[in-house]
Design a protein that fits this description.
Length: 451
């Protein structure tokens, strides 16, 4: 779709307002709206935005960052390929936007542009990245007496009663996603009461991140129509399951269109290149997690025996490991071999998260990093001696610790533009200061609303 296609689509529908959306360092989706009357102009020169906008924290405070002062402007320039009408609000449509300088040049703190950079690094090596986010979320209602959030139902993991409780919501969600150009593959009630999961068909990496943006917006919009607030917060209810946004990823040969993670002669048909890619992720995971699990609330989820990530290890179909080499589908092994990165949650900026994963994996391939033996068990069941023998470490236990790992990581320091590298850490440390010392209720409420 090009700009003229967007204009034509708006003219032949009831769309009156078009959202230009970007994602900042907090993981929150933000933007502005243009009327269709000025859409032709805005598609060309974008919508203005203050340079200070990327310096906001999750608590809506502004960090004093050199290069992000409230003097000077950016432009949100939309990508016509991301156009979607919003079925739950037919008068609205949306576009994902890049942030650029007002003279049209690259803005170094644009996260969508940085993902494009990492995709280009893969392309220079002859690789094409396919990916998909697999987000979990809660449907919640606020108790009028206590003022606290509660799950919308009390169904258990995969319980069929959950399908009945939320049947009309799930039906509308699948129709909405199809109408927005996405292909829902599985929709089901997850482990916690009121918790759902929707998986979307894999696509090229940039589109996969755009799809995650669209899906989060769609889920929240449809949920409101059913009287719910949908939250992608990592641990909105401390007493039950957390919510991840696991990333499934495969590496393809650009010339031959062959899945390079598949090798019929290798153990579990998982290729050596795939192992090297995993090796890079494990090597950089302590720093990467500051980009993939980037909220203060994220570290409530990253606990042992929680089906998330607490230890830096990998395995074949090991759902307690940080990276799972997923078993392919019968008869489609060459097409479906992939890895699942579990250390990702719904508070992440999808462009930063996916870019960070690709950067780490490519580094592993380039330097042939051995991920070690695949772990056939829950890492929590290992003795300290066995963990040491296997080189298994725990992930950072707080956002502050993860940001400290990021600050010491030479790969991300080299690959991220200086302004992005510096500003991201400043925003995250400011968020730590904003939440440290506050009670659990304050943390839960702010994250429940934000994501």
């Amino acid at each position: 779709m090009n700009a003229q296609d967007v204009l034509n689509a708006c003219r032949t529908s009831e769309v009156e307002l078009v959202r230009f959306i970007y994602c900042d360092f907090t993981g929150v989706q933000r933007g502005k709206i243009t009327s269709v009357d000025d859409l032709a102009n805005r598609l060309h020169h974008g919508i203005n935005l203050t340079k200070a906008q990327m310096a906001f924290t999750l608590l809506d405070t502004v960090v004093d960052i050199k290069g992000m002062e409230p003097v000077g402007e950016l432009r949100m320039v939309p990508d016509p390929e991301t156009f979607s009408m919003l079925p739950w609000l037919p008068s609205h449509a949306s576009l994902c936007a890049d942030l650029v300088e007002k003279n049209g040049e690259r803005y170094p703190a644009c996260t969508r542009t940085w993902l494009k950079d990492m995709i280009s690094r893969a392309a220079e090596r002859g690789f094409r990245i396919q990916a998909a986010f697999e987000p979990e979320f809660y449907l919640g209602v606020k108790n009028a007496q206590t003022g606290r959030w509660e799950p919308a139902d009390d169904a258990g993991i995969y319980a069929e009663t959950g399908f009945d409780f939320q049947g009309t919501f799930l039906t509308e969600m699948t129709r909405t996603l199809r109408a927005m150009g996405m292909m829902p593959e599985m929709v089901y009630h997850e482990g916690g009461p009121g918790q759902q999961e929707i998986s979307i068909r894999h696509s090229p990496a940039l589109r996969a991140a755009d799809n995650q943006m669209k899906l989060r917006n769609a889920v929240r919009g449809v949920a409101l129509g059913h009287g719910y607030h949908a939250s992608f917060a990592p641990k909105p209810f401390p007493w039950t399951f957390g919510s991840g946004a696991h990333v499934h990823l495969s590496v393809w040969d650009s010339a031959t269109n062959r899945n390079l993670m598949y090798d019929p002669h290798a153990e579990e048909s998982f290729s050596q290149l795939g192992r090297f890619f995993v090796g890079g992720i494990l090597k950089h995971l302590p720093a990467m997690i500051a980009l993939t699990c980037p909220s203060y609330n994220s570290y409530r989820r990253l606990q042992p025996r929680s089906w998330s990530t607490s230890a830096i290890c990998w395995g074949y179909d090991n759902r307690q490991a940080a990276v799972r080499a997923a078993s392919p589908f019968w008869g489609r092994e060459a097409e479906t071999s992939n890895i699942e990165i579990k250390a990702v949650d719904g508070s992440s900026n999808p462009y930063l998260a996916l870019g960070a994963i690709i950067a780490a994996g490519l580094d592993g391939v380039e330097h042939q990093m051995d991920p070690g033996e695949p772990l056939p068990m829950d890492p929590s069941d290992l003795s300290d001696e066995e963990r040491e023998r296997r080189g298994i470490r725990n992930v950072p236990n707080s956002l502050r610790s993860a940001v400290g790992e990021l600050a010491c990581n030479p790969l991300y320091k080299e690959l991220m533009p200086e302004l992005m590298w510096r500003a991201y850490q400043q925003v995250k440390l400011a968020e730590c200061e904003g939440f440290e010392g506050k009670d659990e209720e304050f943390e839960i409420d702010r994250h429940f609303y934000a994501f």
